[in-house]
Amino acid sequence: MPSDKKEIYLTFDDGPVPGPTEFVLDELKKHNLTATFFCIGDNIHKHPELFKRIMEEGHTVANHTFNHLKGWQTSLSTYIDNVKKCDQEIAINSSSPVVSYFRPPYGRITRAQIKALDNKKIVMWDVLTRDYDATLSPERCLKQSLNATRNGSIVVFHDSIKAEKNLRYVLPKYIEACLIKGYTFTSFHG
Q1: Quick check: is 58 in a domain?
Q2: CA-CA distance, 40 to 61, in Å (whole number)?
Q3: 137/139 Cα distance (integer angstroms)
Q4: Alpha-carbon distance 55 to 59, whole Å?
Q5: What is the structure's pLDDT at 75?
Q6: What pLDDT sits at residue 3?
Q7: What is the number of domains present in the chain?
Q8: How confident is the model at residue 163 (pLDDT cuts 50, 70, 90)?
Q9: Which string of DSSP letters, residue by residue, matches the chain?
Q10: Of 45, 79, 98, 185, whose CB neighbour count within 10 A is largest?
């Protein structure tokens, strides 16, 4: 994103999931921050109250497919149907009939899929925290994430069981370190 301001776009993929998502929401609330949650439709379906809490607390919700599909391994029609199914799940559980933002799982998407999703703003990232990597120590995860952060960074954490160990250590320290460095946090809107 434009780097003329000391702004960071904090994003969370793969939720909502009881435990990790609640932890993230509590941490964001402590600092009065908003973020963008790239939600999996099936998780919204399983945890609608948690999804509603994300929205009630002023965060942006976005589409991350219904089943966390790998774009390069999925046919065009199956992929687009899965994105639409996630949109429908969001619409059922919110007052927002249109979700503008989309993030392809694994950052993998074909040109045909991009073209078919021309009504979406596809959001990638420049800081992948790798919080989901069990071989990465929480300390190293934090250090690498902070070292990669710069003005306009789009940072990806995961509110998932797989990422929970690193997430619980890294997120609070990451937020505090960035605030000390004078960064502000923002979310995608619209």
Answers
A1: yes
A2: 10
A3: 5
A4: 5
A5: 96
A6: 78
A7: 1
A8: very high
A9: ---SS-EEEEEEES---TTHHHHHHHHHHHTT---EEEE-HHHHHH-HHHHHHHHHTT-EEEE--SS---GGGS-HHHHHHHHHHHHHHHHHTSS-S---EE--GGG---HHHHHHTTTSEE---SEE--TT-TTS-HHHHHHHHHHH--TT-EEEEE-STTTHHHHHHHHHHHHHHHHHTT-EEE----
A10: 79
Q: Which residue has the tokens 């300390």?
A: 139
CA distance 155 to 151: 11
What's the maximum distance between 2 C-alpha atoms anywhere in the chain?
A: 47
Active-site residues, by number, are 13, 158
Q: Which domain holds residue 152?
A: 7-186
Structure tokens at 1: 């994103």
CA neighbor of 155 nearest in space, from 4, 3, 12, 26:
12
Six-digit token pair at 92? Answer: 């059922």
Task: Supply the mean pLDDT for the chain.
Answer: 95
Q: Is residue 2 part of a domain?
A: no
Q: CATH number of the domain that 103 lies in?
A: 3.20.20.370
Instruction: For residue range 148-157, list pLDDT tens digits in order.
Output: 999 999 999 9
- Express as a percent the part of the chain with pLDDT over 90: 92
pLDDT of the residue at 97: 66
- Read off the tokens for 171: 């997120």
The answer as to whether 110 is a domain residue is yes
